[in-house]
Amino acid sequence: MVGAGGRTRVCIDLLRVSGFELTTLLDGHAVLVAIGGSGVRPEVRLGEATIRNTSAAIDHDCAVGRDVHVAPGSAVAGGGAVVTDLSEAVTAVGRPARMLPGRTGG
Fold first, then answer.
1. What gap in Å lies between CA 85 and CA 68, rounded to an integer?
2. What's the DSSP call for residue 44?
């Protein structure tokens, strides 16, 4: 399941209606670390169908909702927040997170 969160959601829903049961692949004590220090740190909460792409880092104690695609090379760190749903292909940055001009999805 690769690509944007919306396409991943379609795949997950199709698997469920076909009778498949999905489960968590990592327990709450797992730490994923990639080359260069990017990865998923302790106490991170990832929603269903979250995609952490190449060299994307999710720092400790962060929560990422369902159907989120953390883009290549990006970082999610404490203090920032996106508290409403964003349409697909939106780029949000900063603290608090704001959409970049010209990157409003479609």
1. 10
2. -
How far apart are the C-alpha atoms of 69 and 63, rounded to whole Å? 13
- Structure tokens that stand for 23 in this block: 């489960």
List C-alpha distances in Å: 70 to 15, 19, 32, 46, 74.
Answer: 23, 28, 15, 11, 7
Is it the case that residue 82 has pLDDT exceeding 50? yes
Element (H, E) at 8: helix 5-17
User: What does pTM read for this prediction?
Assistant: 0.61
Residue 89 · residue 73 · CB < 8 Å: no
- Residue 97: name the closest of 73, 70, 61 by CA: 70
pLDDT, tens digit (0-9, with 9 covering 90-100), for 7-35: 777 888 888 899 988 776 665 655 555 55
SS3 state of residue 16 = helix
